[in-house]
Amino acid sequence: MFSKILVANRGEVAVRIIRACKEMGIETVAVYSEADRNSLPVALADERICIGGNAAADSYLNQKNIISAALATHAEAIHPGYGFLSENVDFARLCEENGIVFIGPRSEVISAMGDKDASRQLMQQVGVPVVTGTEILKDVEEAKKLAESIGYPLLVKATAGGGGKGIRVVEREEDLEEAFHTASREAASAFGNGDVFLEKYLTHVRHVEMQVLADYEGNILCLGERDCSLQLNKQKVLEETPSPVMTEEIRQGMMEAAIKAAKAANYTNAGTVEFLLAPDGQFYFIEMNTRLQVEHPITEEISGVDIVKWQIRIACQVPLDLKQEDIQLKGHAMECRINARSIGKVDFLHIPGGGRVHFDTALIQNCEVVPYYDSMLGKLIIHANTREDAIRKMEAALCEMVIVGVETNVEDQLKLVRSDAFHQGEYDTLILPDILNKRG
Ligand code: ADP
Ligand code: ADP
Ligand code: MG
User: Fold this and answer.
1) pTM surpassing 0.90?
2) Per-residue pLDDT at 440 exceeds 90
3) Residues assigned a catalytic role
4) Domains (ranges, CATH) in the chain?
């Protein structure tokens, strides 16, 4: 096993990875920007190195400084977490060239699957259904021509996009040109690649994704689905597993498609295959996230499998010692993403507790919420025997949460958890704004 791992991330996910390492007897190195000097992961790690200024480009995206920090501290592996460099082919390659293990798939797998256009093509080759769409477009003229055959509404999507960035909905032809340029520009500045393609915009669909784990011996496990349909601006807000609309038949089909995708890509490590599920039970591949997913803890709750520890073991060439038949998914789990709506000092903090309730966060009393990065403060995660119990438990936990000093979305989460649509399990990817705008 590795004796030392560098954690190339910040916030709650850095804490999550450091905890896994501690439980495995592995030493940790935290890297941080100046703004994060006094943060929890920096305090928890065995060693710490400042890698640059506050802007992500100067620190958490600064490949050279991160590699130098790993070499200087003799870390054998780097865990990239999610976001930042986690799906960056150049960074994975740079690790490989420097004899450092990148905890994730090999760089060539990231380029085949981490890219939306390339992965769509691979999925079509192996017979996994994708949403009707195009390949990368040369220019707006080509986009206009191909848009006619797809029909409106459609999406302009950046092949390198992520976290809801680089996507534009286009309702009418006259808006296509502007959407094309804004999606492309946004992706070029956030991900260094402005290539875009078109996809049919499906309505009344749910976002349902499958968690996979694959080792270097060709063993692939699927840990079931997560329903992430509750979104604002194409960003996930509340996730649950199992999906309230899942049938055993759809689950089997989707699991087979996810395993087929992983096999076709020669995938290793943890990955997530995202699908849109239509009311008629048909599902369509949209993308694969070749990294740890934000909402991975709900799968850990119902499967009992520690995904981060398996990421580390697999990267160290340890074969999976579990078989698909051993995986039993028990009970119902939910996650509420708690986001900041302002910056400032956390003057008082009370984190809800109790059985099967936990808050994955880097918040501590008197810490400073800074404006430079993702606004997610933490993830409130609960597990119960039934969906009904899970909803009650989440409501109680949200009521108990106290964060004084910064504005948060806790009230919105409460409104969502109390809504009829959520109680009935009847929701799609577009419903959340309506739920939040309702009086009451
Ligand atoms: P997931 O697909 O794991 O559920 P999301 O789709 O919400 O995660 O976001 C994709 C990734 O982009 C996440 O790793 C998220 O942290 C990251 N991300 C989103 N917005 C930002 C941001 N403003 N700064 C840095 N990372 C971001
Ligand atoms: P990202 O990399 O930003 O996560 P995705 O391709 O996963 O991009 O899309 C983000 C969200 O946008 C999805 O979860 C879904 O709600 C919506 N979406 C994506 N593609 C489509 C589509 N073809 N039709 C309808 N909604 C879509
Ligand atoms: Mg996605």
Assistant:
1) yes
2) no
3) 291
4) 4-103 (3.40.50.20), 132-200 (3.30.1490.20), 206-437 (3.30.470.20)
